[in-house]
Amino acid sequence: MLILAGILWSSSALSRPYHYINVRMSWPEAQSYCRERFTDLATVDSMDEVNRLVNIVDAGYSGSVWIGLKRGTQKRWGWSNGENTTSQYYNWASGQPNGDGDCVVIYYGVWHDMSCSYKQYFVCYENSGYILIQSTKNWTDAQSYCRQNYTDLPTIHNSEQNNQINQILLSENYIWIGLFLDSWEWSDKWSLFFRHWAAGQPSQSSGSGDCVGMSTADSGKWAQYSCDLQQPFICHGDKLNRKQIVRLKLSCNECTLNDPSLQTSILHEISEKLKSMGLESESKLSWRKREDEKVFDQESNYMANSNNECKKQ
Ligand SMILES: *[C@@H]1O[C@H](CO)[C@@H](O)[C@H](O)[C@H]1NC(C)=O
Ligand SMILES: *[C@@H]1O[C@H](CO)[C@@H](O)[C@H](O)[C@H]1NC(C)=O
Ligand SMILES: *[C@@H]1O[C@H](CO)[C@@H](O)[C@H](O)[C@H]1NC(C)=O
Predict the structure, then answer these.
(1) What PROSITE patterns has UniProt attached to this entry (predicted)?
(2) Which residue's CA is the nearest one to ligand 3's atom 7?
């Protein structure tokens, strides 16, 4: 019987370290590369992370790099600050949304969908509360304005917040809020709506590219490209190629554990087992030799047990 203990395969995504990979690949190739070695292509959920990403790209490179965003198949509502609409508070006017646009205004306290290219007043928020901006901008420009000068366009989670915003509004004006509809998805399916598009992006016309690159020159703004384009990319997550040493206790009747061919077949067996558990990707197993060049060490004269160590890398 073979007992394999203590294989530690966890990877923490909490701090989400980013890794700049300075090799040109298509988006799907870059995705596989990141999934094999880290967690996935980079996801980004705030301006702080946009800045972290810009900073890890080599100073000498001023082109665009792949991130994990790709055109999806389904349109979903999300908030400009990155939140999804799981809280399920909506305050649509009756008959709304009626499909005439991908951005949302509040008007007399209730919401209407509207083409994002219309120019309207808008509300920004920051810690101290909501600020009405009496300058007309389209939704994307309003978003940039709020992000640069305050925090973002507002997210409305409940009727209390909806009322607070409604109180500062001027009647008879449509006012942009942070709700929008889009069909872009992160590679790791993390349902996250933070977007940082460059001016004019994403393009409404079809065929303009289904994969997203971050421009290092344009303060980390995003644009669509053909997924076949070869460019450097950013992965996130911990490195998966950690070395793991596992101590095994084997018993063997009428055989010699230090027989190299037996050792090879045991390794093969472990490797197959790991694969069947979906664990072994790009990893190599090898025996670790002891100082006396032997892999196994006899535990006791009376028992046929041996110790050995096996190196996983
Ligand atoms: C908003 O206006 C800017 C120019 O100020 C333009 O580049 C951008 O495409 C417009 N966005 C939309 C959604 O109309
Ligand atoms: C931030 O506010 C200033 C002053 O109103 C304005 O000139 C600037 O364009 C704003 N930023 C953006 C990105 O709109
Ligand atoms: C919304 O986001 C939360 C936390 O960010 C996540 O747990 C949840 O699965 C997401 N909901 C959907 C519908 O994707």
Answers:
(1) C_TYPE_LECTIN_2 (PS50041)
(2) 191
Q: Is the CB of 191 under 6 A from ligand 3?
A: yes
* C-alpha dist (Å) from residue 52 to 23, 58, 171, 204: 20, 12, 41, 29
DSSP state of 155: P
Give the global pTM: 0.72
Give ∠ CA 249-252-257 in degrees, rounded to 5.
Answer: 75
| Higher per-residue pLDDT: 24 or 310 | 24
Q: Where are the alpha helices (DSSP H) in the chain?
A: 27-37, 47-56, 139-149, 159-168, 260-276
Reported as type and span, the H/E element at residue 309 is: strand 305-312
How many whole angstroms separate alpha carbon 176 and alpha carbon 172?
13
- Expressed in angstroms and rounded, the spacing between residue 149 Cα and the centre of ligand 2 is 6
**Residue-wise pLDDT tens digits, 198-220:** 988 888 676 779 999 999 888 89
